[in-house]
Amino acid sequence: MAGETVVTVVGNLTDDPEIRFTPSGDAVAHFTVASTPRVLDRQTGEWKDAETLFLRCSAWRQEAGHVAESLARGTRVIVQGRLRQRTFETREGERRTVVECEVDEVGPSLRFAAAKVVKGPYGRVPDGPGPGGDLLGGDRSGDPSSRDGAPHEAPHEDRNDAGRYAAGAGEQPF
């Protein structure tokens, strides 16, 4: 890891993670994180959105299964990984260069949400979904935190317009 560029990005998933399998059977989950910094406009004294960074990320093997089972579009995440630059040629013959993140660690941000951690099985992610579509191969149907084999996420109707969870009766907002 010496000499590699390690970054930590906090942002929201732009879409559900997409999981695929290599010919050798290794799982890879691709997803994009959108991170928009807030900056203070010194002239008006107001906070404004700066330019959004869209970072394409790849998680491999067992972590790929965990990502696909646990995260969904709109989830606020914290991603730490190594930047990778690759060059490719389009069908029209143009050379393009992209910078992507090879994920080392990823998880939901707990700033505006709560999460329950369910320890996954050790070992390799199976070649495709297991019983009930569970990519991790385990049966969590009896787990009260699962919903169709996936970790529980609070219903979206509990969120306000900014994607944050709204305060209930008698609770203070964040």
Task: Please outline what is shown here.
6% of the residues lie in helices and 40% in strands.
Description:
The chain is mainly beta. It contains one helix and ten strands. The protein has one helix at 61-70; strands spanning 6-13, 18-21, 27-35, 38-41, 46-49, 53-60, 76-89, 95-108, 146-147, 150-151. The strands form three sheets. A five-stranded mixed beta barrel has the order 1-3-6-8-7. Strands 4-5 form a two-stranded antiparallel ribbon. The protein has a two-stranded antiparallel ribbon with strand order 9-10. It is globular and about 55 Å long.
Q: What layout of secondary structure does this protein have?
A:
Blueprint: E1 6-13, E2 18-21, E3 27-35, E4 38-41, E5 46-49, E6 53-60, H1 61-70, E7 76-89, E8 95-108, E9 146-147, E10 150-151
Parallel strand pairs: 6-8
Antiparallel strand pairs: 1-3, 1-7, 2-3, 3-6, 4-5, 7-8, 9-10
Count the E strands.
Answer: 10
Number of H- or I-type helical stretches: 1
Radius of gyration (Å): 19 Å
What's the end-to-end separation, in Å? Answer: 38 Å
Q: How does the overall form come out from the CA principal axes?
A: globular
Structural class: mainly beta
* Relative helix content: under 10%
H and E string: EEEEEEHEEEE
* Uncertain regions spanning at least 5 consecutive residues: 137-174
Strand line-up in the sheet with most strands:
1-3-6-8-7
Mean of all residue-level pLDDT scores: 78
**Fraction in beta strands:** 35-45%
Main beta sheet strand tally, sense and closure: 5 strands, mixed, barrel
